[in-house]
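It would be a great kindness if you could assist me with a short task in structural biology. The matter concerns a single protein, recorded as an amino acid sequence and a row of backbone structure tokens. Kindly check, if you would, that the fold set down in the tokens agrees with what the sequence suggests. Thank you for your consideration; the sequence and its tokens are set out here:
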Amino acid sequence: MNETETQERESLTTTESEASLSERKLQIAQFVQTTPDYYSRQFDKIDGDSKFVWTFNFWAGVLGPIWFSARGMWNWGLAFLIIETFAVVQIIRGLFGDLSAEAWERIAKIEGTLELRRQQLASAIENNTDKIDVYQRAVQSLEDAIGGYRLEAQQLEGTGMQIAILGILALLLIKGIQAVIANTLLAKRFSDWLSDPAITSGLPVRSVALSTCFTLIVLAATVTHYSFPGLYPWLIQFPTEHAIRLTSIGWVESFFSYCVENGETFFDAITFAIRVVLDALELVFVETPWMVIASFIILLTWLSAGPTAAIYSGAFLLYMGLLGFWEKAMTTLALLGTAACLSIVIGIPLGMYCARRERFYTFIRPIMDFMQTMPAFVFMIPVIAFFGTGKPAAVVTTMIFGGTPVVRLTVLGLRGVPEHVREAAISFGGSKWYLLTRVDLPLAAPSIRAGINQTIMLSLAMVVVASLIGAKGLGEDVLEALQYANVGQGILAGFAILFCAMILDRIVQGERK
């Protein structure tokens, strides 16, 4: 009886194993759609060994980037396309290209200059002027250059076959690599497809057509351009229409003119709000006796980051005072404080709102990307148009550049709060206000502090740029040093800006993690 049961169990196990293998073959056939038996054997071999398994896919090697892209592995297809294009370019250049064309063009240009110098030399000899030696040296130098370029051209003409052979070897090597790793990469994609059916499988006609057209266009254009330069000028110069550029400039100028004319009240209100905060901070930092401000900063650093950081802060403040940077450093801190305070007051609530509203955050994320990536000198143009020059415009420019990190890191911190902690607070009857103030914000505080720190540091990075539009402070010294090549002044003022950043960083971050 026991023997019969054992046989039945073995039979059932065998049946289940065969069913599992049959199901796997069906899945592989559904995924690859071409030669399923071949891929089934290769995938079994690859999955059966933890090490890299050497296989060879002939068609992957022949078709190269087209095969990888058609199978949905565009990252590999693009990488192989770049390498194959380079190899094909070397082959065509070596066999059919004029490798010495550039050298002969240089020779032709130099010969024109040489003829002019010879005429000047002949005229100088005829008139017996004191420039005969100068022209003789110039003629000799040009003749030597022509001889060097001629030698280079002759050498290049003899290296065509070597370049072609190197290109062929490189092409064969990359084809071999593609054939060897193709099955391993496809097996990994098959595993991903089993867990995510949305991944493209098989060989869709659209993918095949797109990868083929893209590969052929890239190869044809690149090979033609590099192997036969100048044959088709439109491959180098984009067919630009000058009227389109002029029309676009006119539209942009009309838009900004309309905004300036109709938004005067709005921009005046923003300028007034900035002025109120800026004047208050300048009164605190600039007008208050220096010993009061220094004592306050040192004490604040002590309380936040400990005695060592306080000693360093005192040394930094002493540096600024002894070298005459005190008033300008305080002006810089007032300007920076205005921009940072406004960025933080706006950024943290905005980040809290975005953290729970994905659609709104998706909407403003491209705007923040624009604010961070657009060069400062570009968005200074509309700022000057709306606010003029001076400190309010400098504050707005600094806010645009440095205001986004606090929003992003507030969103990151609030979204990183563990959901089970929030659920526990809700289950014990916590209100939305309690959840925000006692759960979300305390757990997100390290990320929010990092955002505040980054906003302050990026605002300091704008000190020199802001000085271009009328902001006073340490940036003015750096800008003056750049204009007059005053190395010492620029370096000393730069260190003063660095020390301001270090003091603020210690105060904001503190020593507690």
Observations:
- The mean pLDDT is 82.
